[in-house]
Design a protein that fits this description.
Elements (H helix, E strand, L loop, with lengths): L2 H18 L27 E8 L9 E7 L20 E8 L6 E6 L4 E3 L5 E4 L3 E6 L2 E8 L2 E18 L4 E15 L2 E16 L18 E12 L2 E10 L2 E11 L4 E4 L1 E9 L15 E9 L5 E8 L5 E4 L2 E12 L2 E13 L4
Antiparallel strand pairs: 1-2, 1-11, 2-3, 3-4, 5-6, 6-7, 7-8, 8-9, 9-10, 10-11, 12-13, 12-21, 13-14, 14-15, 16-17, 17-18, 18-20, 19-20, 20-21
């Protein structure tokens, strides 16, 4: 995309978001839209749906857990993996799922109505024989065999919701969720419990009216996506993200939530890659992707003082399959409200600025 056109698009999207997106007005309010939690495979309104379950901190050797799925293709540069389609874009379901122990984890594509099966009410979402999500808000079961790791989780959504986008046409949110379950690798099982994020998104796409993949130049120019999840303490989780459009930053966010239902969104957030790994990660579409070794999110409070300064060291292999990018885990060190903390986190990373 030409730089002037990309700049105009970013300006237009920012203006539209200020008018139509009510995400920032929803902080601290309880979740009120459980009926949307459906796969919508035959919808004329939604062209793609996203289900996600992310655990940022697990015992060794697992470190993190990710289930990141798209039911229907998005029409965006970052998330459309056209080379992997097994059905027309609207009828293709994809998932990347696993832990550090299952690297390179499980990556699969499924034809909706064939090896991808779901119920209209969302009580069943099944990716072949690999991964199955059952239940309805607020109680779910997630089971699967992902590479060499068997997963069995019970998920209990709290009423604490963090909205990434909330408009009549695009809804995307994460529910703070309590999990308990078992991860089995070889002959060793680890039982654990804690906080995770249960995520859902739904939006129209060009594939409501088109049955073949868009050429890259016609896709929405979302070309950078960074997402990190960290538990700051046993009751507090923060979601950190960066979105880039047309080669430049569009939006950088930090959203805090707690078991007690408190929510807070920070307006002053910076992101930077402190160190890039020497070797780019190979991709199935033939364009190696530069990935970070170390990143930094700096979050300031309303007075401009540092509230959270978090450096992440990507000490876990990158697993391909998040759209055209990767998932991984990291070790972090941070200063939070003047105190030093450390731990583990979960990361999603896509950088298509180079093509």
């Amino acid at each position: 995309m030409h730089p002037l056109a990309a700049r105009a698009l970013r300006t237009g999207l920012a203006s539209a978001r200020r008018v139509f997106d009510t995400a920032d007005r929803s902080d601290g309010k309880p979740f009120s839209e459980p009926d949307i939690l459906r796969p919508h495979v035959d919808s004329r309104r939604f062209g793609w749906v996203h289900y996600g379950v992310m655990i940022p901190d697990l015992p060794e050797p697992h470190r993190f857990f990710s289930m990141m799925s798209l039911i229907g293709a998005t029409g965006s540069l970052a998330f459309d993996n056209d080379d992997a389609l097994v059905a027309p874009p609207r009828r293709n379901a994809s998932v990347v799922a696993g832990t550090a122990a299952s690297h390179p984890a499980h990556v699969g594509n499924y034809a909706i109505g064939d090896d991808f099966v779901s119920s209209p009410d969302g009580s069943l979402v099944r990716f072949g024989d690999d991964l199955t999500l059952t239940g309805r808000y607020p109680h779910y079961e997630l089971v699967g065999r992902l590479g060499e790791v068997d997963v069995a989780l019970t998920l209990t959504n709290t009423g604490t919701v963090s909205w990434f986008f909330r408009s009549p046409v695009y809804k995307h949110f994460g529910l703070l969720t309590e999990y308990a379950g078992t991860f089995t690798h070889g002959r060793t099982s680890v039982s654990t419990e804690g906080l995770c994020s249960f995520e859902y998104g739904a939006m129209p796409s060009p594939y409501l009216a088109r049955s073949t993949p868009l050429p890259p130049a016609a896709k929405a120019p979302l070309d950078q996506f960074v997402y990190q999840i960290v538990d700051l303490d046993p009751d507090t989780q923060i979601l950190l993200s960066r979105y880039g459009i047309g080669g430049a930053p569009f939006m950088t966010t930090a959203i805090l939530r707690t078991r007690e239902g408190a929510g807070r969104r920070f307006a002053d957030v910076d992101f930077e890659v402190l160190e890039v790994r020497p070797d780019p990660e190979p991709t199935p579409y033939g364009v190696p992707m530069p990935v970070p070794q170390r990143t930094r999110f700096l979050v300031r409070d309303d007075s401009g003082r540092p509230w959270l300064d978090l450096e992440a060291d990507m000490d876990t292999p990158f697993t391909y399959g998040l759209g055209t990018g990767f998932v991984t885990g990291f070790a972090f060190s941070a200063t939070w409200r003047g105190e030093t903390i450390s731990g583990r986190g979960y990361c999603e990373y896509i950088d298509r600025r180079g093509g």
